[in-house]
Amino acid sequence: MAEVLVYVDHVDGAVRKPTLELLTLARRIGEPVAVHLGAGADAAAQTLAEHGAVKVLAADAPEFADYLVAPKVDALQAAYEAVSPAAVLLPSNAEGKEIAARLAVRVGSGLITDAVDLEAGDEGPVATQSVFAASYTTKSRVIKGTPVITVKPNSAAPEAAPAAGTVEQLAVTVGETSKGTKVVSRTPRESTGRPELTEAAIVVSGGRGVNGAENFPLIEALADSLGGAVGASRAAVDAGWYPHSSQVGQTGKSVSPQLYIAAGISGAIQHRAGMQTSKTIVAINKDEEAPIFELVDYGVVGDLFEVVPQLTEEIKSRKG
Amino acid sequence: MSLRIVVTVKYVPDATGDRHFAEDLTVDRDDVDGLLSELDEYAVEQALQIKEEADDAEVTVLTVGPEDATDALRKALSMGADKAVHVEDDDLHGTDALGTSLVLAKALEHIGYDLVVSGMASTDGGMGVVPAMLAERLGVPQVTLLSELKVEDGKVTGRRDGDAASEQLEAALPAVVSVTDQSGEARYPSFKGIMAAKKKPVETLDLSDLGIEADEVGLDGAWTKVEEAAERPARTAGTIVKDEGNGGKQLAEFLAGQKFI
Ligand SMILES: Cc1cc2nc3c(=O)[nH]c(=O)nc-3n(C[C@H](O)[C@H](O)[C@H](O)COP(=O)(O)OP(=O)(O)OC[C@H]3O[C@@H](n4cnc5c(N)ncnc54)[C@H](O)[C@@H]3O)c2cc1C
Ligand SMILES: Nc1ncnc2c1ncn2[C@@H]1O[C@H](COP(=O)(O)O)[C@@H](O)[C@H]1O
Asked: Where does FAD bind (chain A) (predicted)?
C-alpha cells in the first residue's frame, strides 16, 4: 500500500492532538509514515504507533531550533525522497503551512491548505475546504505532483489503530541557504492550564462587550466550568484586554469546536471566518440585531454581566 | 546605494460583499467590488516606515492580477509608495499559489530588490503561503509573520509571535518578510497623496516580459483543481430568548440538553 507522510507537531516528544487526527486521515489514503523532527522521538513513537504510524522517521539537529522553518523543509524533503509517498500531510498552523509551501515548490507539487476533511478518490486524495468565511464548501484535488495538504485541527476524531511504529533515523543535511534566518531568542508562551484554543472541544470567547481586561475573568470562569478554552474578538485584543494568541477570526485562530460561546461579540465577517464551522454556536449579546444571532443554535438577548455569571453558577451546580 | 523595497499587494473581492465562485470555479472577481487586501495595507505601511528611517530607499508596489488590480496599486501609491508594477495577462486567470509565487518571483528578479515585504495572508484565498514560496524560489531568507520589524545595516530583525513561543529573528538582506495585522495600523492616504499618486509611474508587464510560458500558470497550468463548490446551507434558525432574569439558566438547560453539561 502507498505510504503517506505525516509531519509530527509535538513539544519535546509530546504529540499534539492535530497530528493524531492527521494519522487517522492518512489511513484513508495509505499507510502513515510519521516524520518527527527534534527531541523526543522515542516517546512520540509510542503514541504515533498507537494511532497507525507504520514507521517513524526521526531526525534531530540543532539547526531545527536555531533557524526558522527552512531546515525542517530540508528534513521533510529527505523523508519525501526516502519514501516516495502518495501524499504529505501537515497540520494547518503557521509553521506547518510554511513548511508545506516550501516543500511544494521544491518537489514541484500542488498545495492545498486548511482542509477540513480528506478522503481517498480515484485520482488521488480529495480535500474538503471551507472558504469565504465558511460560506462555501469546496472539494479540491492536487493535479500536479504529490499532493501536499495541510489540515485544520478538529477535522477528524483521532482513532486508535495499533501499528509497528518502528523508529528509523533519517539522515538530514541542512543546506547553507536554509540557515538564512537566525532565531536569536525564544520566549515560550506561558501555559494557562486550559486546553489549546484550536484543539479545544469547547471555546468561550469574549468581545468588546466584556468592556475591560478586569472583566475577562467572567469569561474565564465560564470556560473553566465547561473545561473549555478562552477566545477573544479582535476588538478585545486590540483594546489590550486579552492576548493576540487568543484571537479568533481571519487574522487570529480558526476554531472548529463542538461548542462555541460568543459573549459580547457582534459577529463581524472576519470573526465568523474563524468560528463558523463550530458544531453548536451560542451567543449572548444585548443587541437583538447583532449579526451573530444569524449563526446561533441558541441565543440570549441580554446583558452578559447578568447572563454569564448565572450560567456559570448553574453549570457548576448541575455538575455538582 | 539605495535600499530597494518591493511590497507585494493583492487585489481582492471585498470580504464584506457577497463573494461567489464563477462558473469555472475560480473566485468571481466581477460581481463584488475589489480593493487592496486590507492585510497588505500593513505591508505597505511597514515598507513606508522603513523608507522613512533609511537614508535612501525606494518603495515599489507589485501586483499580479486583472486590469482592475490597478486600483490596489493606486491606493498603495496614494499612501506613499514611489512606483508600481502590474503583471497582467489573460493567461493568468485561475492561477493558484504555486503559479502566483512563480510570477511574483520572476517579477521581483526583473525589478530588482533588497527587501520584499508581503502581507500575512490574502483576504480571499487566505492561504498565507506566498511569502514562504517566494523565499524558497528566490533562495533568500524568509522572515515571516512579524509583528514588529526593523531594517538596519543590511539586516532585518523582527519579532514573530507563534503558538508556542515568541521568537526574535534576524537575517541579512536580501530577504522576504511578511507582517501581521499586529504590526501597526496603516496610514490613510492624504489628499495630497491621492493627487500625487496619479502622476506616479505604473509599469505593466505580461508573461512574455517575464519569460513565463502560458501553460505554467492560469487555470490550465494550475497544480490544484477545485472540483466542487457548494454554498454552505444557511444554519437553521436557532432559538433566541430574551433575558428576563433567568437567561443564564435557560442557556444552561439548552447546553444540558445538548450533553455539554
Ligand atoms: C483585515 C481584518 C481582519 C480582521 N480580523 C479579525 C479577527 O481575526 N477576529 C475578529 O474577531 N475580528 C477581526 N476583524 C475585526 C472585525 O471586523 C470586527 O471589528 C471585530 O470582530 C469586532 O469585535 P467585537 O464583536 O468584539 O466588537 P463589536 O463589533 O463592537 O461588538 C460588540 C458587541 O457586544 C455587544 N455588547 C456590548 N455590551 C454588552 C453587554 N454588556 N452584554 C452583552 N452584549 C454586549 C454589543 O451589542 C455588540 O454587538 C478584522 C478586521 C479586518 C478589517
Ligand atoms: N496576486 C498577488 N499579487 C501580489 N501579491 C500577492 C498576490 N497573491 C499573494 N500575494 C502576497 O502574498 C501574501 C500572502 O498571500 P496568500 O499566500 O495568498 O495568502 C499577500 O499578503 C501578498 O503580499
From this structure: 208, 233-234, 247-251, 264-271, 285
**Whether A298 and B240 lie within 8 Å, measured CB to CB:** yes
Name the residue facing A177 among B139, B147, B180 (closest C-beta): B139
pLDDT tens per residue across span B110-134: 999 999 999 999 988 789 999 999 9
Q: Do A226 and B127 touch (CB under 8 A)?
A: no
3-state secondary structure of A289: coil
Return the beta strands (E) in chain A as ranges: 3-7, 10-11, 14-15, 31-37, 55-59, 87-91, 111-119, 126-131, 136-142, 148-151, 166-169, 181-188, 202-206, 229-232, 259-263, 280-285, 298-301
| Assigned domain for A118 exists | yes
Query: What is the ipTM metric for this complex?
Result: 0.95
Which of A144, A179, A214 is a domain's end point?
Answer: A179
Interface check B231 vs A, CB under 8 A: yes
Domains of chain B: 3-221 (3.40.50.620)
CATH of the domain at A125: 3.40.50.620
**CA dist., res. B240 & res. A285, Å (int):** 11
**Residue A122, CA atoms < 13 Å, CB-side half-sphere:** 0
pTM for this model (two decimals): 0.95
Domain that holds residue A285: 202-319
